Amino acid sequence: MLKKLKKISGGVKYSNPYWNYNIDNYEMPNGNTGDYHYVSSRGSTMIIPRIGDKFLLTAQFRYLNQKVSLEFPGGGIQEGTNPLDNAVKELKEETGRDPGKITFLGEHNPFNGVTNEICRVYLAEKLRPCNDKPDDSEEFELYLMTENEIIDKIQKGEIWDGMTLAAWALYYFSKR
């Protein structure tokens, strides 16, 4: 049986509205102690906008990878916001659309060795235009794609964002 790792002490090194950077001292499986650096998150959401038989994706420049990423709308949850409201907010800000119908698809942890974050994934349908705008730090281009076009871009490595890939898997396998 796998041994549960025991926290000895810990603290927050840095904090922002979306997450804390923590360092814990813990007991390793061999009995020694070590430091564990991780992001303690309030969670995130991703929402898959469907318009008929097509899906709306956003392209945005990702600073850490220094390249454009094709993704579904999503983002971190600030304190005091629930996941469903956050998903709707992200959809409005990133696409200028308001959902008429939302379905919860599932959840995943995007990087379980580095963060405790849980990303909740939703499907948005019956979209209506709205006037919401992106944050000053964000810029988007919108792309409407069929399921086959999305699969083709995944196979070619043109959709490489892990959270988008996980969200698509939750959507794709929910139909089976």
Features:
three-stranded antiparallel beta sheet; globular; 176 residues; alpha+beta; seven-stranded mixed beta sheet
Give a verbal description of the structure:
With 176 residues, the chain is an alpha+beta fold. Helix content is 20%, strand content 44%. The protein is built from 3 helices and 12 strands; from the N terminus they run E-E-E-E-E-E-E-H-E-E-E-E-E-H-H. Strands 4, 5, 6, 7, 9, 10 and 12 form a 7-stranded mixed beta sheet that branches. The chain has a 3-stranded antiparallel beta sheet with strand order 1-2-3, with no helix packed on it. A two-stranded antiparallel ribbon has the order 8-11. A hairpin with a 2-residue loop joins strand 4 and strand 5. The mean pLDDT is 95.
Class from helix and strand fractions: alpha+beta
Shape: globular
Which residues sit in consecutive blocks of at least 5 with pLDDT less than 50? none
> Beta-sheet strand percentage?
35-45%
Biggest beta sheet attributes? 7 strands, mixed
* Mean pLDDT score: 95
Number of strands: 12
Measured distance between first and last alpha carbons = 34 Å
The number of helical elements comes to 3
Radius of gyration: 18 Å
Write a compact overview of the structure shown.
The chain is an alpha+beta fold.
Write the layout of secondary structure elements.
Layout: E1 6-15, E2 19-27, E3 33-41, E4 44-51, E5 54-62, E6 67-71, E7 74-76, H1 83-95, E8 97-98, E9 101-108, E10 119-125, E11 128-129, E12 141-146, H2 147-155, H3 162-174
Parallel strand pairs: 4-10
Antiparallel strand pairs: 1-2, 2-3, 4-5, 4-7, 5-6, 5-12, 8-11, 9-10
